[in-house]
Amino acid sequence: MLENLKKWKIVPVVAIDRVVDSVPLADALSAAGLPVAEITLRTVAGLAAIAALADQPDFTVGAGTVHTVDQAKQVAEAGAKFVVTPGFNPKTVQWCLENEMPIYPGVSSPTDLETAIEFGLTVVKFFPAEMIGGAKMIKALQGPYGDIRFIPTGGINISNLNDYLSLPSVVACGGSWMVKSDLINEGKFDDIKRLTVEACTMAGRSFS
After folding, report:
1. Band of the pLDDT at 207, cuts 50, 70, 90?
2. For 75-109, what is each residue's pLDDT tens digit?
3. CATH says 2-200 is which class?
């Protein structure tokens, strides 16, 4: 999964309201060269959307906004390939590690990073990135936490994307600007594809 993150550079973070929009969304992202999405559990359709995308060929679906062990179990059963949490819940992290589910828990401080190290984690989510110091904060953390790699998420968009990706400790960025709920709800999948191509190009990604 780490190698995929390095290749993708961007992970679309999706709050989806209708399961029927799942496959068209995946098709748009794949057509833009970014066959991955973190489907959050912020909406009632989230879990079913994960299940709908789990069997899509050559597409990787993960689960975001996972708070509890029960939710981790549910998304694993639905077919999620990775789990992302907004904060660091030791019980959820432990369950994922014991069940060989890649997990990227949210961290926002050196104390959180110390806990991540205790669990043997080397890749974490940095959230909410822009609100807690942004790229400058990550750069400051690189010294004492040189073995940790970050997936900054929160407030990232096309204008500051490369501020993060230029840092050696950042493997990918999470973002929702190319997959906003209103675009999905209005069926504007061509716009989603265009914005995703733009993001991939800005990140130095090749696409087809």
Report:
1. very low
2. 999 999 999 999 999 999 999 999 999 999 999 99
3. alpha beta
| Active site residue ranges | 38, 125
For residue 35, what are its two tokens? 């066959």
Give the global pTM: 0.96
CA atoms in the 13 A half-sphere facing the CB of 133:
11
CA distance 31 to 27: 6
Nearest Cα residue to 73 out of 61, 60, 83, 65: 83
CA dihedral 154, 205, 63, 182 (to 10 degrees): 60
**Domain parsing of the chain, residue ranges:** 2-200
Instruction: Please provide the size of the chain in residues.
Output: 208
CA angle 168, 207, 10 (to 5 degrees): 40
- Measured CA to CA, the distance from residue 129 to residue 196 in angstroms comes to 20
